[in-house]
Write a structure and sequence with these properties.
- This protein is mainly beta and 283 residues long.
- The chain folds into two domains: 1-47, no CATH class; 48-257, 6 Propeller (Neuraminidase).
- It has no helices and 23 strands.
- The chain has strands spanning 11-17, 23-29, 34-39, 45-49, 52-57, 60-64, 72-78, 84-89, 94-98, 105-106, 116-122, 128-137, 140-149, 156-157, 165-170, 176-181, 188-193, 199-201, 208-214, 221-226, 237-245, 251-259, 275-280.
- The strands form six sheets. A four-stranded antiparallel beta sheet has the order 3-4-5-6, with no helix packed on it. It has a four-stranded antiparallel beta sheet with strand order 7-8-9-10, with no helix packed on it. Strands 11-12-13-14 form a four-stranded antiparallel beta sheet, with no helix packed on it.
- A hairpin with a 5-residue loop joins strand 1 and strand 2.
- It comes from Kribbella turkmenica.
- This is Biopolymer transporter Tol.
- InterPro entries: 6-blade_b-propeller_TolB-like (IPR011042), WD40 (IPR011659).
Length: 283
């Protein structure tokens, strides 16, 4: 079931100017719990809510026709040219939906009834999707990083262990996939080299760090940081922080908010890398 707002709660969509740190409220709703902003090449923001996809245009949310795709969750990614939206649906599969006219196409393969696909990234050339494959084996919940051709084809598994991985997203050069993993004890940020499988840890602190989003120009990685001891990436958490990680390892605090799940699950940078978007859920 789609998430809904609690009594007295709001969804607030903000845009942050990275240079100044100033934030701007661009949309607010007391009726629709919307999540996970993407930024289209033409400057509109896309969010999901109530199992559907919405475009913010002229200060109003307009529903995007997904052509009969099952209800979606908050894992959706735009193709680099902005013509196609890739979504994760509640049936566990990935779909490609042409924006405008066109017929939806299922991208993912059948990997058994207990396997679910959660999309997070698309390669800079638009040819490959990065997703998290979630399966249950002997009562254990196993999540690994996978890729699949955007046109459909054979999956490639990049990680193969029992440490929970999530948020797999391509860097701007296409050579690395960034993700969070509990292989360090609790969730920290990592990246893995495409082709070699070499993994590198990027953060190491007491906070629980999720969803790395590299800027298009490679200048920083935006991510969601939960308080120490947080399990998973829950909703409605106080002291959730959005941070920027610079290439030299310096961490910059940008904003503290009430939120978590849905705040910034997907690539949310503006095409010029000057801004990013996020959602807060104040009560």
């Amino acid at each position: 079931m789609p998430r809904t707002l609690r009594p007295g709660q709001r969804s607030e969509l903000y845009v942050v100017d990275v240079g100044t740190g100033a934030r701007r409220l661009v949309h607010c709703s007391a009726t629709l719990l919307f999540e996970a902003p993407n930024w289209s090449p033409d400057g509109d923001l896309l969010v999901n809510g109530d199992g559907r996809l919405w475009r913010l245009h002229d200060d109003e949310l307009h529903e995007i026709d997904l052509g009969g795709v099952p209800p979606i969750n908050n894992d959706h990614v735009l193709s680099p040219d902005g013509t196609t939206i890739y979504v994760s649906a509640d049936d566990g599969h990935l779909y490609a939906v042409p924006l405008g006219d066109g017929t939806p196409r299922r991208v993912s393969n059948d990997r058994g009834p207990g396997f679910r696909h959660y999309l997070h990234g698309v390669s800079p050339d638009g040819r490959t999707l990065a997703y998290i494959g979630l399966e249950h084996v002997d009562g254990r919940r196993i999540a690994n990083v996978w890729t699949i051709p955007a046109a459909g084809g054979a999956d490639v598994q990049l990680t193969d262990d029992e440490h929970a991985d999530d948020g797999s997203e391509y860097g701007p050069d296409g050579k690395w996939i960034y993700f969070n993993s509990e292989r360090a004890g609790h969730a920290q940020l990592f990246r893995i080299a495409v082709g070699t499988g070499e993994a590198e840890q990027l953060t190491s602190d007491e906070r629980v760090n999720w969803f790395p989003h590299p800027a298009p120009d490679g200048s920083a990685i935006a991510y969601v940081s939960f308080p120490p001891g947080t399990e998973g990436h829950p909703a409605d958490v106080d002291d959730v922080r959005i941070r920027l990680l610079a290439p030299d390892g310096e961490v910059r605090e940008v904003v503290t908010l009430f939120g978590g799940q849905g705040t910034m699950n997907v690539p949310s940078w503006s095409p010029d890398s000057r801004s990013f978007a996020y959602v807060a859920y104040p009560l």
